[in-house]
Amino acid sequence: MSKNAFIFGILIALLSPLGFPQAQPPAPPKPVEEPPSPLAVPKDYHYNGRGRRDPFVNPIPKPAPNTPAAGGGPRPPECPQAQGLKGVLVGQATIAGVVTSREPSMNVAIIGAPAGKTYFARVGDALCDAVVKSIKLDVVTFMPNVPAGTDQKGVREIQRKVRPTP
To answer: From CA 155, how far away is CA 166, in angstroms rounded?
Structure first.
């Protein structure tokens, strides 16, 4: 019987780790991936508008940060009022037409501006960097604005010819 007890004890010793497993060190927790937000866009997504704009993109671009010119050249003047005719530079303006009258003070120039805008100007009306000096049948003359304290003699008039828009 002692032999049976001895064998029984050895069997219990050998089978005890199988029946009663030892505590294993905890496995590192798996990183929990958060589900994507409902407004997330997949990286490979591309909008096919077929000629229409994307309704979820802001149509008004953000203004570029003011950085000085790399070459140190002249910068365009900053207009305090950027709306209307006073926001148009002479270099950007095209003369689309002229309406003349017997009385020169009644002449009107039709000025095309960027983004397809059109403005009507009379003698004395101000643009961003110039003033309309005269309006003739085929030429509009501008006098550039000169900062105070600079020589007025070196300033030349700018003449723009009437060009039909395509």
So the answer is: 32
